[in-house]
Amino acid sequence: MTDFKHLDIEDKTVFSEYLSLDPPRTSELTFTNLFIWRHQHRPTWLLWEDCLLIIFQPKGATPFGLPPIGPGDKKKALDFLFQILGQLTPEARVCRVSQSFVEEVVEPNQYSITLDRNNSDYVYLTRDLINLSGRKYHRKKNHLNRFIKNNTFEYRPLDKDLVASFLEMQESWCQIRECVEQPELLSEDYAVHEALTHFEDLDYQGGAIIMDSRVEAFSLGEPLNQETAVIHIEKANPDIPGLYTAINQLFCSNAWADMTYVNREQDLGSEGLRKAKESYYPHHMVDKHILTQERNK
To answer: What residues form DSSP beta bridges with 53?
Structure first.
């Protein structure tokens, strides 16, 4: 592992190059996502024979790899990655593996393949999230219309002058949700701070709903590939009815109208998150898998 290095902001150029050569479909594989969550996942990386290899080493949890990225021989890179993982843990595994990677790279007689439903991504048609047309979106459209009718607000894209206001909104949201009592929300709070304090260094966009000179909702996202945007963070004041629906619709219409799809990431096995994501009727899922070297029987 001596050649693997910890992820830092200076590594963005390398990651951008390899991700542009091999555009991802899974939400984890953007530099922004890897960077802002680095204190939780503790990613290390290595360039090996024209492939980018990434290993997560979270504290108190089993290390695991992400699928190799780049134009090199991914089958060889995957074998090498498992060799490295075998030095770290007897439970070597590669996670967040897309269905396309499984079909194009993985030898089924060499690896065991397990669907990871909790980490599979929800992907929507952008026009559905913008227009909210048809019977299935009737409820969402009503929520949006009521919010517009009952509130005076302004939508603004994130710029450096708004960063402090976004941070204030995040702090207020965390106080309401008692983030200090919930490790997963505390980790997310750290990730949001990392994203916002490095706004000018990263490639994502943000949008906010401002009411009475306060940011009451915001969303952060970026292009995942040429036809898909990925939404990393979405926050809204839970005391304002329809606000979550409004920030979703406004961010998509203002930032991502030229994209065919919007990836809203995974539900992590949370019943509440799953219900919320399914309520927008995904066009499809990006299934993710876990690879181990146990042979199929």
So the answer is: 46
Distances (CA, A) of 1 to 49, 54, 101, 241: 16, 11, 25, 50
Please give the Cα distance from 261 to 125 (Å, whole number): 5
- What digits encode the pLDDT tens for the residues 264-282? 999 999 999 999 999 999 9
The count of C-alpha atoms lying within 13 angstroms of the C-alpha of 78, restricted to the half-sphere facing its C-beta, is 20
Six token digits for residue 203 = 């490639």
pLDDT digits (tens, 9 = 90+) for 44-94: 999 999 999 999 999 889 999 999 999 999 999 999 999 999 999 999 999
What whole-number distance in Å separates Cα of residue 277 and Cα of residue 167?
Answer: 25
pLDDT value of position 296: 44
Strand arrangement, sheet containing 228-236: 154-157, 205-211, 214-225, 228-236, 261-263, 121-125, 284-286
For 61, other C-beta atoms within 10 Å of its C-beta total 11
Q: In the chain, which stretches have pLDDT less than 50?
A: 295-297
Which two three-digit tokens encode residue 221? 């996202």
Q: What is the rounded distance in angstroms from the CA atom of residue 2 to the CA atom of residue 165?
A: 41
Dihedral of the CA atoms 135, 138, 139, 145 (nearest 10)? 180
- Going from the N-terminus, what domains does the chain have, and what CATH number goes with each? 5-120+288-292 (3.40.630.30), 121-265 (3.40.630.30)
